[in-house]
Amino acid sequence: MTPNDSPSYDELVLAVREGDAHTRGEDLRSFLQALTRGEREVRANPSAAAAAVDAANPSLEAKLQLESIRQTLPATVPAEAGKPYGWQDPSAWAAFANWMYTQHLIAHDPNASGLPPFTNEFLPGQGI
What is the predicted pLDDT for the residue at 1? Predict the structure, then answer.
């Protein structure tokens, strides 16, 4: 990888202020549980999911939406077996944060505190 190449990272990214994570953790957990239920429903019936997208926005091409769902569903499964929908590898995010810092895309090194710049703790079955 050259210095300008971004390290790989998972596409599902939800950004939350640290303070909100501390004060509204139950809301975050509820949102992620709902997102997980939605992913399961899409996986169980991609055609129904595509129809719902088409109903919400009739200007979209129905066949394209269904194929998009079918092509992207495999990417929603965590690489590490046994992990819940949305789980991400801590070392991958530490590397990505380091790359952003060394490329001067962010002003402060998020790894400097020794705490990871993200958490899986609000995912169903994880954390508290």
Answer: 53
